[in-house]
Amino acid sequence: MSKKMFANVLALVIMAAMVMTACAPAATQTPAAPQATDTTAAQPTATTAAAMPTETAAAQATDPAAATATVGATATTDAATATTAAPVVDMKYENVDPTGQKITFWHNQTSKKEEALKAIVADFNKTNQYKITVEATSQGAYADIFKKVMPILNTQDMPNLLVAYQNNAATYQLAGALADMTSMVSSPKYGLTADEQKDFFPAFFAQDIFPTYNNQRLGIAPNRSLEGLYYNADWLKELGYTDPPKTPDQFKEMACKAAKTPFTKATGKGKSMGFELAVNDASHFAAWTFAFGGDIYDAKTNQYTLNSDASVKAMQFIQGMFKDGCAAQPAEQYGDQTDFGTGNLLFAIGSTSGMSFYSGAVASGAKFNWQLATVPYTTSTPVVDIYGASISIPKSTPEKELAAWIFLKYFTSPEVNAKWAQTSAYFPSRQSAAKSMTDFLGKNPQYKVGFDLLQYGKYEPPVPGYDFVRSMIQDEALAVIVSSPYPDVKPILDKVNDEANANLKDQLSQIKK
Asked: Of 28-37, 172-181, 214-223, which range is least confident?
């Protein structure tokens, strides 16, 4: 989307907020002043699936971080470095009675996932003590939901529960359209205890707090995915290795050896390759930067750091693999999955939400033992890129907002969270969900590896315009760095970083107006 188009859309959002608020219930007529702060808050855009962190490695239009940018000028990118101040909790919901409320829930699930969600909703409707009734309906992909929501912000047509990436939530909040869930989460009567809050994986729990909006909580995570390393364990064994690589040097050694030593069970006719990197996903850039001990954004200075030492070293490392013939680009979209399945590719990096697609490719291909591991790292412990949509509560009445929260609390409770995770193949947001997943984890060793890595989660920058920056990374950094003739990495990243920060400055200036 062009900057001019962005400006037009932003103007439309602000105008919609002003006009539609007049039609809203009394409880919704307190718009939040647009502030600069995004995944990922401040600019309303409709982006493609490739523009945001990919939540699936297959060609499914319903599972990528697919919607817009977000507003987060000072948001931190992982729980370990969180600097947000402790929220001031009021007791506004303590004397609210949610009994008998009817709640609408807009989500993006289809097929088996939708059936599983309907079952959870039905159980809640039958068992909750307040006789709350939730009606859950699929509204299409994330981008479809965004388009449907934008024209009805702050009206009675808004649903009471809404699936939204952090960038979507922040965009909606430009119009003050979402309820701050801080008081609900911390309510002595209806909320989560301190131990229950700690039970959420730290990065998951922190991701939906927006410093730009005075540390408001605009969502809560029911699940997440992560960027993982898929590898052919049988081929690795043939090459003389018993364990997957932990360091980049080990990764390159194995990949280069695979490029020269075909897998004996390979069914594909193509050339053997150690690693393939799809350049249409900027999350690869983030994941490798994290693995090299860096970040792509500095929350303290509110600046991108795409040209940091870690980013430069990570991209130089990847480029070196291409130069040495140990890595290549997939020949087609999702070609890395295909090549992995036929036994022509040793390593592939992608979202764990695409695990079933890798499994299917192997089952219909070379039928080998495949496993999941973390992206090779230089740090003392792994650092994994995590992402996923959360659920927000649009403003309505205190009774409906509280009723919506009561369902969301139920949905994210350990046992229900575990049930949802096992059906959806996403990872649960609650650590104690594992207690109800013993058999599932035992039967799905690749999934268990991913689950055990969640404690090392880190997320991409929640800043305005990040979708544009992702496109810059894909088009100007990844695509160039992995193509011959191979240029000097540093000047390219310097250029992209300057463009990214100029874009950020531009977005923030427009928001402040």
From this structure: 28-37
